Each structure stands twice: as structure tokens, then as C-alpha cells.
Amino acid sequence: MTAKEKKRLVNRAVAAESKRAGVLSRKVHAWAERPFREVKSSRAIGDYLASRGFEVEFPFRKIPTAFRATRGAGEPAVGLLGEYDALPNCGPEEGQWGHG
Length: 100
Description:
The protein has helices at residues 3-31, 39-50, and strands at residues 55-57, 68-70. It is globular, with a radius of gyration of 16 Å. The protein has a domain at 3-70. The protein is mainly alpha-helical. The termini are far apart. Helix 1 (3-31) runs antiparallel to helix 2.
């Protein structure tokens, strides 16, 4: 498979998921959960990944809102770290929590 064909496959996969991923992103943004309290957010992201064939492990490293999602084995291996906890004074009003 050529690099151009691989790129076309990736672009199709991204386009197919964009609507569902966008809905999830807006939900996480609206919840704006504080650090170590991202209960709804972590569960929603974990469920999203599980519905797409990932094995999701909750909790991860003894952190209740942390999880590890894996799929497949071998090469290549890709790792991602997501930070989605809210920040102080980033909400719609002064003093509220929100996303930066």
C-alpha cells in the first residue's frame, strides 16, 4: 500500500468518526469536571472507545477517573495522553471552572 493510499484510509476513518467525536467533545467541555473528579467525562470517553473495539481498563494506576484503552498488538504502537479536567477561572463567569 502506498503512502497516498494509507493517507486516504486515515482521512476516511477520521471523517467517519468526526460527528460522534464532536458530540463527545462538546459533552466533556460542557461538564467541565475538576481534576480527579472527571467521573462523567472519563466514563463517556471510555465507553466511546469500548464501543469502537478498545479494551478499557478502569481504574488505571489506582486513579478512579483514569483508564487505559488498548486495541491490537505489535507494531506500530501509538500512545496518547488526554487531559480533560477543567481549570479554575476558565469558565464563562469569573471564578468558575471551565476548559482553557
